[in-house]
């Protein structure tokens, strides 16, 4: 069962009319605003260092972006990617674009680690049931990520 089985609801989500991100004015757990997207990083993460880039205007598919928007989104993706890997010590970054339940363009960044629970395969976020951060660890990571992006905390 998914939102696809209700064509009217799916059309309202895709048009933005009932998109929770647009209705709220942005996603949850925003760390900072980049050129074309919000960078989010929250407690509810399937992997240490998981973050997400959410495009700032409502769009569903990558081909919905103008060429300039696509280039700007890619600059944001590369900017985050470039700092996230060394910051987390990840052996590899995984990038995922789905939008199957929330069709507002966003890209997930999953840092992958030697010995992580999904080594050798893709991440299954639904299989992660316990917190990945110790108390205080997330806030420290948020500050380090902002600094690595060249953004002073609180000025994003
Ligand atoms: Zn939206």
Describe the structure.
The protein is an alpha+beta fold and 156 residues long. It has a single domain, classed as 2-Layer Sandwich (HIT family, subunit A). Helix content is 31%, strand content 16%. It is built from 4 helices and 5 strands. A 5-stranded antiparallel β-sheet has the order 1-2-3-5-4, covered by helices on one side. The mean pLDDT is 94. The protein binds zinc ion (ZN). Residues 16, 19, 21-22, 58, 104 line the site of zinc ion.
Quick overview of this protein structure:
The protein is an alpha+beta fold and about 160 residues long. Helix content is about 30%, strand content about 15%.
* Sequence of strands across the biggest β-sheet: 1-2-3-5-4
Tell me the number of strands. Answer: 5
What proportion strand?
Answer: 15-25%
The CATH class, by name, is Alpha Beta
Query: Major sheet, described briefly?
Result: 5 strands, antiparallel
Number of discrete helical segments? 4
For the CA atoms, what is the radius of gyration? Answer: 16 Å
State the shape.
globular
H/E element string? HHEEEHEEH
What structural keywords apply?
156 residues, globular, five-stranded antiparallel beta sheet, 31% helix, binds zinc ion, 4 helices, alpha+beta
């Amino acid at each position: 069962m998914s939102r696809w089985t209700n064509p009217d609801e799916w059309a309202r989500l895709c048009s933005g009319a009932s998109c929770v991100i647009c209705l709220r004015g942005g996603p949850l757990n925003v760390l900072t605003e980049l050129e074309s997207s919000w960078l989010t990083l929250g407690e509810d993460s399937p992997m240490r260092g998981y973050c997400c880039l959410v495009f700032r205007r409502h769009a569903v598919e990558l081909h919905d972006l103008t060429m300039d928007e696509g280039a700007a989104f890619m600059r944001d993706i590369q900017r985050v990617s470039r700092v996230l890997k060394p910051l987390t010590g990840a052996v590899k970054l995984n990038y995922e674009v789905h939008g199957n339940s929330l069709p507002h363009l966003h890209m997930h960044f999953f840092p992958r680690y030697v010995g992580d629970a999904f080594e050798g395969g893709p991440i299954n976020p639904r299989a992660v049931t316990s917190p990945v951060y110790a108390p205080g660890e997330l806030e420290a990571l948020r500050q380090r990520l902002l600094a690595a992006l060249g953004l002073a905390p609180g000025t994003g």
